[in-house]
Each structure stands twice: as structure tokens, then as C-alpha cells.
Amino acid sequence: MRIKGYGMSSGGFGDGNRSESFKKRHRIGQKIRGTVIKNIANGMAWVDLNGDRLLAQVATSHREGSTLFFQITALHPKIMLKELTDGHSGSSAPLGLATTFDTARILFEKQFKPEQRSLSQKNFFLQRNEFLHILTGNKELYTRYMDAVRCASTISTTLEPTGRGQVFYQPWLAPLCHRQVTVITQPKQSTSLRKILVEFDHAKMGMVCIEFLLKTPTLACTLKMQRPQHGAALKRYLSSKTYGGSTLKLHNISVAKLPQNAHGGIITALLFHS
Are residues 60 and 9 part of one domain? Predict the structure, then answer.
């Protein structure tokens, strides 16, 4: 499927404001994730692409809320995206794994939404136990969560032989956020650094990837944020916590802008890694 992007102005679409912004922040060949927001008449749909809401002409209809993966094939004079399909990738595995996991997370989060606020107000160190307590009282919610966990485990099975890490779904770490995922890379030697990536989508901060580097007893981290102007608040929050049962102290928290080629998410980057 190809999409031709149009910007949206107060009078409708066509002035190119949003599409011009998209062009400045992306490059040809980049892989990105998109969500179908709303289908409208004449083969048109609103599509959210890394925070850019564009009106698109679609060749194939997709269910609203569907997660799609694209590769940018042209930016001028119009935005042209090609959907990554099984035939395009040469293997259904990477695309299928990424899409299935994303769908499982969305379905869980939709049902978990009434519990998000109360969980976020719990003490940070009690949130996991409270999360599990909530699941024990809701069979359908538990089933949704386990679907996402199994998807993460399947991705881990794919990544581990190549040393690209283990994948975990831990929504209690960011209860008010969406699409949380944790990737842990085990060091080959006991003296090596251990890398832990925690990624989520936040309403104000956009996509955030927290990269922890651990070499006992030192723990450092870099906040890679779609909107780094909110980095100070997140730094204060992380600095106020203890880690590893208070045996670790977080040092050297730095803030950086999340690269454009990372807006598709950790899972997309790992699965399509060559």
C-alpha cells in the first residue's frame, strides 16, 4: 500500500503544514510505525505517523486502530510510503511478531485504562504487587496481559540467539503510559556492562527510551526523548528512586533527543536489524 500525505490546516487539508514538518524530520528508506485513526470516504484515512497526523490516500482499507509498518520511499514532491508486507520483507516473521505484540499491548491497555490512575498513585516499590493483585481479580484482564507477555517471549526467542536481548512487558513501570517494553541485554562476560532499555509512549513527553547501563555498583542512564524539554522532570523522578534493593545508586543521568530513526520503537529496530 502506498500513502500520499497531506497536511491539515484550520480550513481542511492541503496546505502541507504537517506534511512539510514530516519531511524535515524523516529520511528516505526510514522504517516507521503508523496507526490508522479514522477511515473516511473515497479511500482516505487519517493516519498517525510518529505523532504526525496526516490525511492519507490508502489503496487498502484497514481497521481503525490497526498498527502498520512503513518504509519511506519518497518525500518530494509528495510523501510516499510503502507498507511493509510479508512479501516486501521476504519473511513474515519480523513483521508478524512486531504487529502481534503491538496489538496485544493495545488490547490490554484499553481494558486496563480504568485501573491506570489508581496504580500510578501507589508507592513505586509496591506498584508491581498492586498490578498483580489487580490481575488476580480480573480474569479477562489477566488473559489480555498474558497474551502480551507471550508475544514478548516469542520475540525474545527470536532475538536471543543473535545476542540482541530479552524482551519483557512490564506496564507497571509506567502505568500512565502506553506501549511499554523492556529489553535486557546480558553481558558476555561478568565484568561487562549490562544494558537495560525501558521504552514507553507518554502523552506529554512522546516516545521515551531510558537506557540504563549497569556495572555493579554503578548505574548510569540516558533519557532519549521525543520531546526532551520534559527531561528535567523525568530526571528528578528517576533520581528519587533506589535500585537493586538500595544497593545501586543512579549516577550521570543525561538527556538526549530521540533520533528520528528510533521513532518506530525498539522492537521494530531489533526485528528489522540486519
Answer: yes
